[in-house]
Specification:
This protein has helices spanning 2-5, 14-35, 44-70, 82-110, 115-146, 150-167, 179-187, 217-241, 247-259, 261-268, 278-298, 304-325, and strands spanning 8-9, 12-13, 200-204, 211-215. It is mainly alpha-helical. The strands form two sheets. A two-stranded antiparallel ribbon has the order 1-2. A two-stranded antiparallel ribbon has the order 3-4.
């Protein structure tokens, strides 16, 4: 048994992966099964407190990663400083996820999901993210290890994406034309109304009268949100691989950043429009990280502390400038600035 736990999987022993996933599953079970077992709307104050808790957990985990690296207990596959790489990846993913909040709010609005049911869908969504992000990161790691030139593709993609974000005006996505929504509605029985927090219900088939399973709009919203997350991951996963190719650091930074976003959603959803200018800071981060790949490969490894400092400076600058620029705009649903 000890030998099995010591078996290396994606560069780290199985016990390390198991310990991390155990922490995540425990947090999710406590959140979903204890804190939010009943149907209730998550208030802004509770949202902020819960988000602060998740961020504290992420910071504590990052501190452990930093300590483990400094004491020689954790060695990264590419020689990067594990602590700096983790925090850089965490802050990049956290900032990129703010854009996801706007899309999630549009999806909930389209399916007419009231706030008291939204949190349950978001928490179940994170369980799917843990699996889907893991698959994407494992595939990315395999590509990078087998073909190191893939990093150049990641770099060029990040630079192109960042420039596109800077010059192409944003357009609100039309959920009604989403191909996933159309596909599901054509191939699944879907109820017209919600049925509490249920994703599936049994009802008589209008054609035969037999009791059959129907999906609810809450289930459709859950699926579309997870598809949207995969689309966002196309940007965020290469960005963290540009910081480090250590699979464990890439995965843990990703999951820890997303974990608290579900809680923060209810505080951000009402004022996400006030973070409009953060988009430009994120675009510059993507360009910087993309160019960093070429610099590392062609010139020499850039000091990781510089990457962390530039990332934090751009994120902080984007948030502060956005809040200052939109200080006179009302918060959604309140009519107050």
């Amino acid at each position: 048994m000890i030998d099995l736990l010591s078996y290396a999987f994606l560069g780290k022993p199985l016990w390390m992966w198991g310990a991390f996933l155990a922490v995540i599953v425990t947090l999710m079970a406590f959140d979903l099964g204890v804190l939010h077992r009943d149907e209730k709307e998550l208030g802004v104050a509770e949202s902020l407190w819960l988000s602060a808790f998740y961020i504290s957990v992420a910071m504590a985990f990052g501190g452990y990663i930093w300590w483990s690296y400094e004491t020689g207990r954790l060695i990264t596959e590419d020689g990067t400083h594990a602590g700096i790489a983790y925090f850089t990846g965490f802050f990049i993913e956290k900032a990129l996820s703010i854009d996801n909040v706007f899309v999630i709010s549009l999806i909930f609005g389209f399916f007419a999901i009231p706030p008291k049911y939204q949190y349950r869908a978001l928490v179940w969504g994170i369980l799917a993210v843990i699996i889907l992000r893991g698959i994407m990161i494992a595939l990315g790691a395999a590509l990078v290890q087998q073909y190191s030139w893939v990093l150049y593709i990641f770099g060029a993609f990040l630079v192109a994406t960042g420039i596109k974000m800077l010059v192409v005006p944003e357009a609100d996505p039309d959920v009604s034309k989403n191909p996933v929504v159309r596909f599901l509605r054509k191939r699944m029985r879907v109820t017209e109304q919600l049925h509490g927090q249920k994703f599936f219900v049994r009802q008589p088939d209008p054609a035969t009268g037999k009791m059959v399973s129907f999906a609810t709009p809450l289930f459709l919203a859950l699926i579309v949100i997870n598809v949207a997350d995969l689309i966002f991951a196309v940007d965020s996963v290469p960005a963290i691989f540009a910081i480090t190719t250590d699979t464990f650091i890439v995965y843990t930074a990703n999951i820890m950043a997303i974990l608290g976003l579900r809680a923060l959603y209810f505080a951000l959803a009402a004022m996400v429009h006030r973070f409009h200018y953060l988009k430009y800071a994120l675009a510059m981060i993507l360009v910087f990280i993309g160019l960093k790949i070429f610099w590392n490969e062609l010139v020499g490894k850039l000091n990781p502390a510089i990457s962390l400092g530039v990332t934090l400076a751009l994120i902080a600058g984007g948030i502060i400038y956005s809040l200052w620029k939109t200080r006179d705009e009302p918060t959604a649903g309140t009519g107050k600035a």
